[in-house]
Amino acid sequence: MGRVQEDGNGPVHGFRLSTVSSSRPTETGTTHEPTGLDLAMKLHYLKVVYIYSAEIARDLTVMHVKAPFFPVFDQFPWTTGRFARHDSRRPYIKCNDCGTRFVESHCNLTVDEWLRLPDRSIDESLVYYKPVGPELTFSPLIYIQMTRFKCGGLALGFSWAHVMGDASSLSHFFNLWSRAFAGEKIYCPKTSDGVRGFQNPNSTGKKPDSVKRVDPVGDLWVAPSYKKMVTYSFNLTVHEIRSHFPAIRDEFEILCGIIWKCIANVRKGESEPVTITIIRSDSDGLKPRSVSNSQVISSVHVDFSVAEANLEEIVKSIGKATDERFGIGEIGESDDGDSDLIVYGARLTFVDMSEVDFYEAKIKKKSPKSVYCNVHGIGDDGAVVVLPAAKEEERVVTVTLPEEEMEKVKRELKKSGLIIGE
């Protein structure tokens, strides 16, 4: 699905930009130093959309939405800052309260009409995206798009620079907004830099497979792509996932195994993926919770043909994934943080967001009707993102692949039984 045009030809139109920032000034000279893992993610962006029904959102004004962001930004002053570089070229954030871009728009459809569209990647039309750069000192790190549907429903879409934090961080950030909206006084204890580091539990001495250097991009932080990438999204139930695998196994690992085999069938031969990346939320989490990159990035390598292997063998190998965060952080620190890297799509990447608490972002005690999340800046090997759905027993699967592969992979997904009735 492509982005709906901003020139009035699509259902989303009437764009108006303003700025939101903290409610109080940050102390002069305050800075935020990204970790090596943060810097390894700097060419990636999260796109997240929360859709609320007219029943609970009809009476909300722009100021109703903007005001709760003020105290949230107070807790995380770097989110409204701007990047600069030390003399060594290492990027850092000046916490100068320059603010976040807030975008108002309108949609010609009702919420129900919008949600009837079968491919949820259309939700990316509700996210106003611009990358960081080429002038770092002027580039916001977050864009928030508020879209009013014809029925009075509301979508809040985020473009979030991944260098700041992972999907759990974005969810935590917006859940705080919902608490501030409800009138709670929010406070987030600061996480020390020491806590933000990672141990190296599985050191093998070799460089991590899940990251790839790219040609220098300078101050325009956009991941290079040599293929046209397209996105397709579908829903399925946990029961449908488990029906493919009789043994008691993690549902995400089962799903990864099925889709990995489908893609391997399409890429048979030299391009068959025998090494993949697995990205999951850190089950331990950061204590206290903060806005940072703490996701577990692991690698799986097999010495057999995935296309020819049985599902049990594939799923078993996924369960042996090796945590590579420490090595990625070291590479992110190399050249004093000036290296340009990609993680998502450097290898075929599977992202488990099924445990991220997106649906805790309640308005008037009501959860969103739908939440969409994907990553912008996916490399040519592609990525699969698994999200929670509004119904607890369902999952949303979003696949991003080179355009020439997508229809072939969809046919394999239908053969496997993951896609039904299309």
From TrEMBL:
Reading the lineage from the top rank, the first entry is: Eukaryota
- Listed InterPro entries: CAT-like_dom_sf, Plant_Fungal_Acyltransferase
The record's family statement is: Belongs to the plant acyltransferase family.
What's the name of the protein?
Answer: Uncharacterized protein
- Give me the ranges of the annotated region Disordered: 1-33
Gene3D superfamilies to which the protein is assigned, alphabetical = Chloramphenicol acetyltransferase-like domain
Q: Which Pfam families match?
A: Transferase
